[in-house]
Amino acid sequence: MSDIAIDARPAAQAPFDLKALRAEFPILAREVHGKPLVYLDNAATSQTPSRVIDALSDYYARYNANIHRGLHTLADEATAAFEGTRARVQAFLNAEDSRQIVFTRGTTEAINLVAQSWGRQNLGPGDEVLISMLEHHSNIVPWQLLASDLGFVIKVIPVDERGALDLRAYRELLSERTKLVAVNHVSNALGTINPVKELSRLAHQQGALILVDGAQAAPHQAIDVQDLDADFYAFSGHKVYGPTGVGALYGKRALLDAMPPWQGGGEMIRTVSFEPSGTTFAETPHKFEAGTPAIAEVIALGEALAWVDGVGVEAIGQWESVLLEHATRQVCAIDGLKVIGTAPHKAGVLSFVVEGAHAQDIGLLIDQLGVAIRTGHHCAQPLLHHFGVEATCRASFAAYNTLEEVDTFVAALHRVIKMVR
Ligand code: PLP
Protein backbone atom coordinates (compact mmCIF):
# COMPACT_ATOMS: atom_id res chain seq x y z
CA MET A 1 0.00 0.00 0.00
CA SER A 2 3.07 2.23 0.16
CA ASP A 3 2.59 3.34 -3.46
CA ILE A 4 -0.55 5.25 -2.51
CA ALA A 5 -0.27 8.93 -1.90
CA ILE A 6 -2.58 10.15 0.84
CA ASP A 7 -3.66 13.78 0.74
CA ALA A 8 -2.49 16.12 3.44
CA ARG A 9 -4.81 15.94 6.43
CA PRO A 10 -7.30 18.71 6.88
CA ALA A 11 -6.34 20.82 9.86
CA ALA A 12 -9.67 20.12 11.56
CA GLN A 13 -9.73 18.16 14.78
CA ALA A 14 -12.74 16.44 16.26
CA PRO A 15 -14.63 18.88 18.48
CA PHE A 16 -14.48 16.26 21.28
CA ASP A 17 -11.89 13.91 22.73
CA LEU A 18 -12.01 11.32 19.97
CA LYS A 19 -9.70 8.84 21.70
CA ALA A 20 -11.78 8.86 24.87
CA LEU A 21 -14.99 8.68 22.86
CA ARG A 22 -13.77 5.64 20.91
CA ALA A 23 -12.85 3.91 24.16
CA GLU A 24 -16.55 3.97 25.07
CA PHE A 25 -17.30 1.58 22.18
CA PRO A 26 -15.97 -1.91 23.00
CA ILE A 27 -16.60 -3.22 19.48
CA LEU A 28 -14.12 -0.76 17.99
CA ALA A 29 -11.30 -2.69 19.65
CA ARG A 30 -12.01 -5.87 17.72
CA GLU A 31 -10.21 -7.18 14.68
CA VAL A 32 -11.73 -8.49 11.46
CA HIS A 33 -9.66 -10.93 9.40
CA GLY A 34 -6.66 -10.06 11.55
CA LYS A 35 -6.97 -6.31 10.87
CA PRO A 36 -8.28 -3.58 13.14
CA LEU A 37 -11.94 -3.01 12.39
CA VAL A 38 -12.69 0.12 10.38
CA TYR A 39 -16.46 0.42 10.63
CA LEU A 40 -17.93 2.61 7.91
CA ASP A 41 -21.43 1.14 7.70
CA ASN A 42 -22.99 3.55 10.15
CA ALA A 43 -25.93 4.51 7.94
CA ALA A 44 -27.10 0.89 8.23
CA THR A 45 -26.48 0.59 11.98
CA SER A 46 -24.25 2.58 14.30
CA GLN A 47 -22.29 0.98 17.13
CA THR A 48 -23.33 1.28 20.77
CA PRO A 49 -21.34 2.72 23.65
CA SER A 50 -20.87 0.72 26.87
CA ARG A 51 -23.46 2.74 28.76
CA VAL A 52 -26.14 1.61 26.29
CA ILE A 53 -25.04 -2.02 26.51
CA ASP A 54 -24.96 -1.68 30.32
CA ALA A 55 -28.46 -0.23 30.36
CA LEU A 56 -29.74 -3.34 28.57
CA SER A 57 -28.08 -5.77 30.95
CA ASP A 58 -28.86 -3.65 34.01
CA TYR A 59 -32.56 -3.88 33.22
CA TYR A 60 -32.44 -7.68 33.07
CA ALA A 61 -30.11 -7.96 36.06
CA ARG A 62 -31.97 -5.60 38.39
CA TYR A 63 -35.54 -4.67 37.44
CA ASN A 64 -36.90 -6.87 34.65
CA ALA A 65 -40.69 -6.52 34.93
CA ASN A 66 -43.63 -5.67 32.74
CA ILE A 67 -44.57 -2.01 32.71
CA HIS A 68 -47.63 0.12 33.49
CA ARG A 69 -49.83 -2.50 35.20
CA GLY A 70 -47.69 -3.85 38.01
CA LEU A 71 -47.97 -2.66 41.58
CA HIS A 72 -44.63 -4.02 42.75
CA THR A 73 -41.30 -2.25 43.00
CA LEU A 74 -39.70 -3.81 39.94
CA ALA A 75 -42.68 -2.87 37.76
CA ASP A 76 -42.55 0.67 39.12
CA GLU A 77 -38.86 1.01 38.37
CA ALA A 78 -39.22 -0.44 34.87
CA THR A 79 -42.18 1.86 34.14
CA ALA A 80 -40.30 4.92 35.39
CA ALA A 81 -37.25 4.10 33.25
CA PHE A 82 -39.41 3.35 30.20
CA GLU A 83 -41.41 6.56 30.54
CA GLY A 84 -38.15 8.41 31.23
CA THR A 85 -37.08 7.60 27.69
CA ARG A 86 -40.31 9.08 26.38
CA ALA A 87 -39.41 12.36 28.06
CA ARG A 88 -35.86 12.08 26.68
CA VAL A 89 -37.18 11.56 23.12
CA GLN A 90 -39.51 14.51 23.58
CA ALA A 91 -36.52 16.71 24.46
CA PHE A 92 -34.39 15.19 21.67
CA LEU A 93 -37.00 16.16 19.07
CA ASN A 94 -38.14 19.29 20.90
CA ALA A 95 -41.72 18.04 20.95
CA GLU A 96 -44.19 20.00 23.05
CA ASP A 97 -45.37 17.06 25.12
CA SER A 98 -44.08 13.54 25.83
CA ARG A 99 -47.55 12.17 24.95
CA GLN A 100 -46.68 12.96 21.35
CA ILE A 101 -44.01 10.25 21.36
CA VAL A 102 -45.08 6.73 20.34
CA PHE A 103 -42.57 3.91 20.70
CA THR A 104 -42.28 1.65 17.67
CA ARG A 105 -39.87 -1.01 16.44
CA GLY A 106 -38.17 1.65 14.31
CA THR A 107 -38.72 4.05 11.45
CA THR A 108 -40.33 1.40 9.26
CA GLU A 109 -42.97 0.56 11.83
CA ALA A 110 -43.57 4.25 12.57
CA ILE A 111 -44.34 4.94 8.90
CA ASN A 112 -46.56 1.87 8.69
CA LEU A 113 -48.41 3.11 11.77
CA VAL A 114 -49.16 6.44 10.11
CA ALA A 115 -50.16 4.71 6.87
CA GLN A 116 -52.47 2.19 8.52
CA SER A 117 -53.99 4.56 11.06
CA TRP A 118 -54.00 8.10 9.66
CA GLY A 119 -53.88 6.90 6.03
CA ARG A 120 -56.83 4.52 6.25
CA GLN A 121 -58.90 7.23 7.89
CA ASN A 122 -57.93 10.09 5.58
CA LEU A 123 -56.98 8.84 2.11
CA GLY A 124 -59.16 7.72 -0.76
CA PRO A 125 -59.78 7.97 -4.49
CA GLY A 126 -58.80 11.35 -5.93
CA ASP A 127 -56.19 11.97 -3.20
CA GLU A 128 -52.46 12.13 -3.76
CA VAL A 129 -49.47 11.29 -1.58
CA LEU A 130 -46.17 12.86 -2.60
CA ILE A 131 -42.99 10.96 -1.85
CA SER A 132 -39.54 11.72 -3.23
CA MET A 133 -37.18 9.89 -5.53
CA LEU A 134 -34.80 9.70 -2.55
CA GLU A 135 -37.00 7.50 -0.38
CA HIS A 136 -35.95 4.36 1.41
CA HIS A 137 -38.27 1.43 0.62
CA SER A 138 -39.74 1.98 4.10
CA ASN A 139 -41.29 5.20 2.89
CA ILE A 140 -42.44 3.82 -0.46
CA VAL A 141 -43.93 0.40 0.11
CA PRO A 142 -46.31 1.24 3.02
CA TRP A 143 -47.95 3.85 0.76
CA GLN A 144 -48.10 1.44 -2.18
CA LEU A 145 -49.75 -1.24 -0.04
CA LEU A 146 -52.33 1.30 1.09
CA ALA A 147 -52.86 2.87 -2.33
CA SER A 148 -53.83 -0.48 -3.82
CA ASP A 149 -56.51 -0.78 -1.11
CA LEU A 150 -57.77 2.80 -1.03
CA GLY A 151 -57.28 3.99 -4.60
CA PHE A 152 -55.23 7.14 -4.01
CA VAL A 153 -52.30 8.10 -6.23
CA ILE A 154 -48.60 8.27 -5.29
CA LYS A 155 -46.54 10.92 -7.05
CA VAL A 156 -42.77 11.20 -6.94
CA ILE A 157 -40.76 14.40 -6.50
CA PRO A 158 -37.74 14.11 -8.82
CA VAL A 159 -34.10 14.90 -8.02
CA ASP A 160 -31.52 16.75 -10.08
CA GLU A 161 -28.29 15.20 -11.39
CA ARG A 162 -26.55 15.85 -8.06
CA GLY A 163 -29.24 14.08 -6.07
CA ALA A 164 -30.90 17.21 -4.64
CA LEU A 165 -34.69 17.47 -4.62
CA ASP A 166 -36.15 19.43 -7.52
CA LEU A 167 -38.06 22.08 -5.60
CA ARG A 168 -39.66 23.55 -8.69
CA ALA A 169 -41.13 20.18 -9.57
CA TYR A 170 -42.25 19.81 -5.95
CA ARG A 171 -44.16 23.08 -6.12
CA GLU A 172 -45.80 21.96 -9.36
CA LEU A 173 -46.76 18.56 -7.97
CA LEU A 174 -48.42 20.04 -4.90
CA SER A 175 -52.12 20.64 -5.39
CA GLU A 176 -55.38 20.57 -3.51
CA ARG A 177 -55.37 16.80 -4.18
CA THR A 178 -52.18 16.39 -2.11
CA LYS A 179 -53.08 15.04 1.32
CA LEU A 180 -49.63 14.02 2.51
CA VAL A 181 -45.98 14.68 1.67
CA ALA A 182 -43.79 11.82 2.95
CA VAL A 183 -40.07 12.53 2.60
CA ASN A 184 -36.83 11.67 4.28
CA HIS A 185 -34.82 14.32 6.07
CA VAL A 186 -31.53 12.82 4.91
CA SER A 187 -31.14 10.25 2.15
CA ASN A 188 -29.46 7.03 3.28
CA ALA A 189 -28.26 6.21 -0.23
CA LEU A 190 -26.77 9.60 -1.21
CA GLY A 191 -26.54 11.62 1.99
CA THR A 192 -28.62 14.49 0.56
CA ILE A 193 -30.07 16.70 3.31
CA ASN A 194 -33.55 17.79 2.29
CA PRO A 195 -34.88 21.28 3.05
CA VAL A 196 -37.60 19.88 5.25
CA LYS A 197 -38.68 23.18 6.74
CA GLU A 198 -39.37 24.58 3.29
CA LEU A 199 -41.06 21.36 2.14
CA SER A 200 -43.23 21.53 5.22
CA ARG A 201 -44.16 25.19 4.66
CA LEU A 202 -45.18 24.51 1.08
CA ALA A 203 -47.12 21.35 1.97
CA HIS A 204 -49.06 23.21 4.65
CA GLN A 205 -49.82 26.05 2.25
CA GLN A 206 -51.69 23.46 0.19
CA GLY A 207 -53.42 22.01 3.23
CA ALA A 208 -51.34 18.81 3.09
CA LEU A 209 -49.57 17.13 6.02
CA ILE A 210 -45.90 16.23 6.08
CA LEU A 211 -44.35 13.05 7.42
CA VAL A 212 -40.58 13.15 7.83
CA ASP A 213 -38.49 9.99 7.83
CA GLY A 214 -35.69 11.11 10.13
CA ALA A 215 -33.82 7.78 10.30
CA GLN A 216 -30.66 9.31 8.83
CA ALA A 217 -31.02 12.80 10.25
CA ALA A 218 -31.46 12.09 13.95
CA PRO A 219 -27.87 10.81 14.41
CA HIS A 220 -26.28 13.81 12.71
CA GLN A 221 -28.16 17.03 13.39
CA ALA A 222 -30.37 18.67 15.97
CA ILE A 223 -34.03 17.96 15.29
CA ASP A 224 -36.70 20.46 16.18
CA VAL A 225 -40.10 19.16 15.13
CA GLN A 226 -41.77 22.43 16.12
CA ASP A 227 -39.42 24.51 14.03
CA LEU A 228 -39.82 22.10 11.09
CA ASP A 229 -43.56 22.13 11.70
CA ALA A 230 -43.51 18.38 10.99
CA ASP A 231 -46.83 16.60 11.41
CA PHE A 232 -45.08 13.26 11.88
CA TYR A 233 -41.40 12.55 12.46
CA ALA A 234 -39.88 9.05 12.73
CA PHE A 235 -36.46 7.71 13.68
CA SER A 236 -34.75 4.43 14.68
CA GLY A 237 -32.70 3.67 17.80
CA HIS A 238 -30.07 1.54 16.11
CA LYS A 239 -28.87 4.39 13.88
CA VAL A 240 -28.46 6.74 16.80
CA TYR A 241 -26.05 4.67 18.94
CA GLY A 242 -28.94 2.76 20.49
CA PRO A 243 -30.25 -0.80 20.30
CA THR A 244 -32.09 -2.49 17.45
CA GLY A 245 -35.84 -3.13 17.54
CA VAL A 246 -36.85 0.27 18.88
CA GLY A 247 -37.64 3.68 17.47
CA ALA A 248 -40.14 6.45 17.85
CA LEU A 249 -42.85 8.33 16.06
CA TYR A 250 -43.61 11.95 16.89
CA GLY A 251 -47.01 13.26 15.86
CA LYS A 252 -48.92 16.48 16.40
CA ARG A 253 -51.22 15.95 19.33
CA ALA A 254 -54.51 16.68 17.55
CA LEU A 255 -53.60 14.28 14.76
CA LEU A 256 -52.63 11.46 17.11
CA ASP A 257 -55.74 12.00 19.21
CA ALA A 258 -57.96 11.73 16.13
CA MET A 259 -56.24 8.63 14.75
CA PRO A 260 -57.62 5.15 15.44
CA PRO A 261 -55.47 2.37 16.91
CA TRP A 262 -53.76 0.24 14.27
CA GLN A 263 -52.99 -2.86 16.33
CA GLY A 264 -55.15 -4.36 19.06
CA GLY A 265 -54.11 -6.09 22.26
CA GLY A 266 -53.02 -5.41 25.80
CA GLU A 267 -51.65 -2.01 26.87
CA MET A 268 -53.67 -0.09 24.28
CA ILE A 269 -57.13 -0.54 25.80
CA ARG A 270 -59.12 1.14 28.57
CA THR A 271 -61.93 -1.43 28.81
CA VAL A 272 -62.66 -4.59 26.83
CA SER A 273 -66.02 -6.18 26.30
CA PHE A 274 -67.22 -9.02 24.08
CA GLU A 275 -69.45 -6.39 22.48
CA PRO A 276 -67.00 -4.73 20.04
CA SER A 277 -68.61 -1.35 20.71
CA GLY A 278 -67.93 -1.87 24.42
CA THR A 279 -64.17 -1.95 23.93
CA THR A 280 -62.55 1.44 24.51
CA PHE A 281 -59.02 2.56 24.00
CA ALA A 282 -56.28 4.15 26.06
CA GLU A 283 -55.17 7.73 25.50
CA THR A 284 -52.43 8.79 23.08
CA PRO A 285 -49.70 7.49 22.91
CA HIS A 286 -50.62 4.21 24.64
CA LYS A 287 -53.43 3.42 22.20
CA PHE A 288 -50.69 2.92 19.56
CA GLU A 289 -48.52 0.66 21.73
CA ALA A 290 -50.30 -2.71 21.76
CA GLY A 291 -48.63 -5.56 23.64
CA THR A 292 -45.52 -5.66 25.76
CA PRO A 293 -43.03 -3.29 24.17
CA ALA A 294 -39.26 -3.66 23.85
CA ILE A 295 -38.80 -2.44 27.43
CA ALA A 296 -35.05 -2.93 27.76
CA GLU A 297 -34.43 -1.45 24.33
CA VAL A 298 -36.58 1.61 25.02
CA ILE A 299 -34.69 2.21 28.27
CA ALA A 300 -31.36 1.76 26.47
CA LEU A 301 -32.51 4.15 23.73
CA GLY A 302 -32.85 6.77 26.46
CA GLU A 303 -29.24 6.08 27.41
CA ALA A 304 -28.14 6.41 23.77
CA LEU A 305 -29.86 9.78 23.42
CA ALA A 306 -28.26 10.91 26.69
CA TRP A 307 -24.90 9.89 25.23
CA VAL A 308 -25.58 11.84 22.01
CA ASP A 309 -26.65 14.87 24.05
CA GLY A 310 -23.48 14.59 26.10
CA VAL A 311 -21.26 14.67 23.03
CA GLY A 312 -23.50 17.18 21.24
CA VAL A 313 -25.27 16.17 18.04
CA GLU A 314 -24.06 19.31 16.28
CA ALA A 315 -20.45 18.46 17.16
CA ILE A 316 -21.03 14.95 15.80
CA GLY A 317 -22.43 16.30 12.53
CA GLN A 318 -19.57 18.76 12.24
CA TRP A 319 -16.97 16.02 12.67
CA GLU A 320 -18.72 13.75 10.16
CA SER A 321 -18.57 16.57 7.61
CA VAL A 322 -14.79 16.71 8.06
CA LEU A 323 -14.56 12.95 7.57
CA LEU A 324 -16.83 13.09 4.53
CA GLU A 325 -14.82 15.85 2.92
CA HIS A 326 -11.52 14.08 3.61
CA ALA A 327 -12.87 10.84 2.12
CA THR A 328 -14.57 12.49 -0.86
CA ARG A 329 -11.47 14.43 -1.84
CA GLN A 330 -9.40 11.26 -1.87
CA VAL A 331 -11.79 8.88 -3.59
CA CYS A 332 -12.49 11.42 -6.32
CA ALA A 333 -8.83 11.12 -7.32
CA ILE A 334 -9.30 7.40 -8.07
CA ASP A 335 -9.37 6.66 -11.76
CA GLY A 336 -12.83 5.56 -12.95
CA LEU A 337 -14.52 6.22 -9.61
CA LYS A 338 -17.74 8.20 -9.68
CA VAL A 339 -19.45 9.59 -6.61
CA ILE A 340 -23.23 9.22 -6.78
CA GLY A 341 -24.85 12.03 -4.86
CA THR A 342 -23.07 15.36 -4.79
CA ALA A 343 -25.83 17.59 -3.46
CA PRO A 344 -24.64 20.85 -1.88
CA HIS A 345 -25.99 19.82 1.53
CA LYS A 346 -24.90 16.35 2.49
CA ALA A 347 -24.60 14.29 5.67
CA GLY A 348 -21.77 11.77 6.19
CA VAL A 349 -22.61 9.35 3.38
CA LEU A 350 -20.29 8.63 0.47
CA SER A 351 -21.82 6.50 -2.30
CA PHE A 352 -19.77 5.61 -5.35
CA VAL A 353 -19.30 3.24 -8.26
CA VAL A 354 -16.04 2.19 -9.86
CA GLU A 355 -15.71 1.50 -13.56
CA GLY A 356 -14.79 -2.11 -14.23
CA ALA A 357 -15.32 -3.20 -10.62
CA HIS A 358 -18.54 -4.65 -9.25
CA ALA A 359 -19.68 -3.06 -5.97
CA GLN A 360 -20.23 -6.50 -4.40
CA ASP A 361 -16.65 -7.57 -5.17
CA ILE A 362 -15.31 -4.37 -3.66
CA GLY A 363 -17.40 -4.87 -0.52
CA LEU A 364 -16.27 -8.47 -0.04
CA LEU A 365 -12.60 -7.80 -0.69
CA ILE A 366 -12.38 -4.65 1.38
CA ASP A 367 -13.90 -6.60 4.28
CA GLN A 368 -10.88 -8.90 4.07
CA LEU A 369 -8.81 -5.81 4.90
CA GLY A 370 -10.93 -5.08 7.97
CA VAL A 371 -13.02 -2.32 6.39
CA ALA A 372 -16.82 -2.58 6.67
CA ILE A 373 -18.72 -0.64 4.01
CA ARG A 374 -22.12 -1.37 2.49
CA THR A 375 -22.72 -2.40 -1.08
CA GLY A 376 -26.00 -2.86 -2.89
CA HIS A 377 -29.14 -0.84 -3.51
CA HIS A 378 -29.38 0.48 0.08
CA CYS A 379 -33.15 -0.14 0.05
CA ALA A 380 -33.52 2.66 -2.49
CA GLN A 381 -33.84 0.74 -5.76
CA PRO A 382 -35.86 3.38 -7.66
CA LEU A 383 -33.24 6.01 -6.82
CA LEU A 384 -30.33 3.87 -7.96
CA HIS A 385 -32.15 2.98 -11.17
CA HIS A 386 -32.64 6.70 -11.76
CA PHE A 387 -28.87 7.09 -11.63
CA GLY A 388 -28.48 4.12 -13.97
CA VAL A 389 -26.84 1.79 -11.45
CA GLU A 390 -27.90 -1.40 -9.70
CA ALA A 391 -25.59 -1.02 -6.74
CA THR A 392 -23.12 1.38 -5.17
CA CYS A 393 -20.44 1.12 -2.51
CA ARG A 394 -21.34 3.27 0.48
CA ALA A 395 -19.07 4.47 3.26
CA SER A 396 -20.94 6.26 6.04
CA PHE A 397 -19.45 7.99 9.05
CA ALA A 398 -20.18 8.31 12.75
CA ALA A 399 -18.83 10.26 15.71
CA TYR A 400 -16.13 7.68 16.48
CA ASN A 401 -14.55 7.46 13.03
CA THR A 402 -11.09 8.97 12.56
CA LEU A 403 -9.18 10.57 9.71
CA GLU A 404 -6.74 7.65 9.94
CA GLU A 405 -9.61 5.25 9.37
CA VAL A 406 -10.61 7.21 6.29
CA ASP A 407 -7.01 6.88 5.05
CA THR A 408 -7.05 3.13 5.75
CA PHE A 409 -10.31 2.84 3.82
CA VAL A 410 -8.94 4.78 0.84
CA ALA A 411 -5.73 2.77 0.79
CA ALA A 412 -7.72 -0.47 1.00
CA LEU A 413 -9.96 0.71 -1.80
CA HIS A 414 -6.97 1.37 -4.05
CA ARG A 415 -5.71 -2.11 -3.32
CA VAL A 416 -9.03 -3.80 -3.95
CA ILE A 417 -9.64 -1.96 -7.21
CA LYS A 418 -6.25 -3.12 -8.46
CA MET A 419 -7.22 -6.70 -7.59
CA VAL A 420 -10.58 -6.70 -9.37
CA ARG A 421 -9.69 -4.80 -12.51
N1 PLP B 1 -35.51 5.36 6.29
C1 PLP B 1 -34.23 5.58 6.04
C2 PLP B 1 -33.81 6.84 5.37
C3 PLP B 1 -33.28 4.62 6.39
O1 PLP B 1 -31.99 4.82 6.14
C4 PLP B 1 -33.72 3.43 7.01
C5 PLP B 1 -32.76 2.38 7.35
O2 PLP B 1 -31.75 2.20 6.69
C6 PLP B 1 -35.07 3.28 7.27
C7 PLP B 1 -35.94 4.26 6.90
C8 PLP B 1 -35.60 2.07 7.95
O3 PLP B 1 -35.18 2.02 9.27
P1 PLP B 1 -35.51 0.76 10.18
O4 PLP B 1 -35.03 -0.43 9.42
O5 PLP B 1 -34.72 1.01 11.42
O6 PLP B 1 -36.96 0.75 10.40
Itemize the secondary structure elements and their pairings.
Elements: H1 18-23, E1 31-32, E2 35-36, E3 38-39, H2 50-62, H3 73-93, E4 101-104, H4 107-122, E5 128-132, H5 141-150, E6 153-157, H6 167-173, E7 178-184, H7 196-205, E8 209-213, H8 225-228, E9 232-236, E10 247-251, H9 253-258, E11 269-271, E12 280-281, H10 295-311, H11 313-331, E13 337-339, E14 349-354, H12 359-368, E15 371-372, E16 374-376, H13 381-386, E17 392-396, H14 403-420
Parallel strand pairs: 3-15, 5-6, 5-7, 7-8, 8-9
Antiparallel strand pairs: 1-2, 4-10, 9-10, 11-12, 13-14, 14-17, 16-17
Helix pairs in contact: 2-10, 3-10, 4-5, 11-14, 12-14
This protein binds pyridoxal-5'-phosphate.
Question: Could you give a short account of the major beta sheet?
Answer: 7 strands, mixed
Question: Kindly state the mean pLDDT as a whole number?
Answer: 96
CATH class label of the largest domain: Alpha Beta
Indicate how many domains the architecture comprises.
2
Summed up, the helix count is: 14
Low-confidence stretches: 1-8
Radius of gyration over all CA atoms, rounded: 22 Å
- Helix and strand content put the structural class at alpha/beta
Shape call? globular
> In CATH terms, what is the fold-level topology of the largest domain?
Aspartate Aminotransferase, domain 2
Number of strands: 17
Query: Which small molecules are bound?
Result: pyridoxal-5'-phosphate
